[in-house]
Amino acid sequence: MYNLGKLIINKEISGEEEKGFNLIQQAAESGYSFAQNYMGRAYRFGWYVNANPVRATNWFTKAAEQNMPDAMCNLGDMYSYEDGLTIDYEKAFYWYKKAAETKHSRALTELGDMYYAGKGVRQDYQKAMEYYQKACDEGYPYAFYSLGFMYWKGQGTLPDKEKAQEYLSQAAAMGNESAFQLLNRMDHESEEEKDIDPFARQAYLEAQQALADKETEKYINLLSQSANLGYVQALNDLGDLYFNGELAPKHMGKAYEYFLKASQNGSGYGSYSCGFILMKGSSDIPRDIEKGLSMFRLAVEQNYKAATRDLARYYYSLETEEDNRKALDYYLQYIEYNPKDTDTLLHIGLIYESGLGVPLNIDLARRYYERAAEQDETGMAYNFLGGTYMNDEETESNERKAVHYFQKAIELGNTNAMFRISYYLHNGKGGLQVDIPREIELLTEASKRGNHQATYRLGLLFEDNESGMAQNLELSVKYFQLAADNGILAAINKMGELYLFGEVIPANLTKAISCFTAASEQGYGKASYWLGRLHTDGIGQLEKDTQKAMNYYRKAIEQGYEEAREWMEQLQKNLVDETITDIEIPQDKSDEELYKDAKNALEKAQFKTAYAYFSYLTQRNHAESFNELGDMYFYGRGMAINQAKALELYKKAATLDSVYGFFNVGFLYWNGPEEIQDPEQALQYLKKAVQMGYTYALSFIGDIYRTGPEELIDYAEAKRYYQKGVDVNEINAIKGMALLYLLGQGVTQNNAMGAFYLKKAADKGNAWAMYHLGRLYYYGEGIPVTPNWHWTIYKWLMMRTIRMHAVC
Predict the structure, then answer these.
(1) Using CA atoms, how far apart are residues 389 and 387, in angstroms rounded to an integer?
(2) Which among 102, 432, 500, 598 is most buried, taking Cβ atoms within 10 Å?
(3) Cα separation of 668 and 538, whole Å?
(4) What is the per-residue pLDDT across 483-495, written as a single tens digit (0 to 9) for each?
(5) Angle between the 698-707 and 659-671 helix axes, to the nearest 10 degrees?
(6) Alpha helices for 428-563 (secondary structure H)
(7) How far is CA 332 from CA 39, 345, 372, 669, in A?
(8) How do residues 82-132 score in pLDDT, each as one tens digit?
(9) Whole-structure pTM value
(10) Residues 786, 792 contacting (CB under 8 angstroms)
């Protein structure tokens, strides 16, 4: 069962991973030690279950009691690491020791670490070295690094740079980055030790012995004596001490001070460390990019080669032609020093493949990718190699090479290759047959490992009923949402489309707009196009706004979505030019027929026609045409927004006794731009609208009397007009009445009465009222607590959340 479960989980045979996990669990429960050890790891790291250190420890114990070395070592971890059950070094030592008796390399190293740091045992560098050496005999890279470090520092032995370099070189060859960095530092410091003051060196050696004896204060004092005599290694060690904050409180200011002195004494490591601190910045040392780069360059001049990679990475991140050339120059310098550095080889390849700032050279890029592939264990180099052929001319040879490299990358677990090879499996190219089940299998694996381009692709496959797989719209939405939640812009836009059209999931224009806005702001052209369409048609809470629509269409084109061009050009044709009247007005229609035609033209974004018809009708004193023209200026439909012009037209409508004209003028005098606002005039026009039966204006009159300006505040009048609105169920008036009681404006403050009116508004679907009603129940101020008050709070707050905070 265990082996079958592993085969399913590893996708070597078909089956659901949960089924594979269940088979392993059954094997574990049957007493199979390998399965028990697997279950321990599953509960420790959260594979298919929630992480649970108690259960992890129990499973490791079951396997360890069957003398399984790996389980013994894992059980030791549970007692010595922070993510374990509890720190108990005695138990950790016991289990590491039992595993080490079987020559388990990691357990041997863990024992070495315990003796090195004095965790649960008396610190003993000699014993640490013994265990590290045994782990080295078993080929464990970290043990080589640890021994090299001890020989370099003279911990448990006299300092021996030759032996240190021997062990560190082996660790570096096995991929240990720390070993490589330390070798680089040692190479540089060997140059710095010429003409050293013998007293400085003696103080340094005594400091190392004090450190071995755990005499921290003595160690720092002796190290400071050596540093004061100009011993560069002591200066750098003090810098490290305050930078790391292990033996003394972390203090970037002091760290920088010591590194700077080392730099001034010719230390490349000191210069490099100063640069690193400056590039990051801290409360003690402000971030200073230019000065940091200058220190990195000084480190290079002082022969500290590691700085070339930091310089390269910085310039590469800027993504300009000039900076890319600088990045390439530094990467090439670094690769001469460390010819097997995978990351550097890959970046050199990427620069030649992009051609940004350097001549495009795909062949040279491939050669660097091939060099990287020799030691790359992630599959990234093979994935990049495959990509060069995938992006090349579509020939059978290139397709086969792309597939070849993607397959090699997949063998190393590279999820990008899993995603990219899906194209060839879907279309039967590159020597592969059409194999949709295999495509879905690889995409699912990539998705589970965090590649959400693959997640989005899965959504498309299950949405498509022509892929050969059964259409599953529910599953497709699940994948689209997961990809969107993880920042895939195409998926965010897709969710916007689904919410917009409402065919697969319930239509929700608020969520659609939220999705489109999020994707547009991050550069996704199609989302910008949809925002343009929504502003063109005035859908949802987005008003018809020609200028905004045009801006979004232009943005979409700039972001690479050319399909927006046709809509932009069509909209441009319909933009109003007030100086040109080339629209012919039908003379055989009545004013009302023309008005209806103008409204239809406006709905279809035929702004020139709408403007011409409305303008003609205003010459014939058609009141509502003045209002419609005013709206075109107010909302910017087919022209630039001009609220002063809108006010002028609304006033003309009002002189023709248009109730909407009176309201629109009152609204602009109250809520318009500052240069237009005139609350006294607003009251006059709004009251006229009310007299003509337009009850929507009641709440605005109430608001003016309630909020001012100061000379107009009259709470009694506010309440009178709000009450008139309440009597006809005008929702804004109901909210106004609630505020009077909640704030105690002109009435005795009364939360219960406030809640009464809030509930009336909430029952009509008003999100603002739902939210504030929920808050009143939550705090219980002036509201009787009922047995189901928890549900009441939940109900109102959740309704408010759904209505007001719908997001993609």
Answers:
(1) 5
(2) 598
(3) 21
(4) 999 999 999 999 9
(5) 30
(6) 436-448, 452-463, 473-485, 489-501, 509-521, 525-537, 546-558
(7) 46, 9, 14, 68
(8) 766 678 889 999 999 999 999 999 999 999 989 887 788 887 888 899 999
(9) 0.59
(10) yes
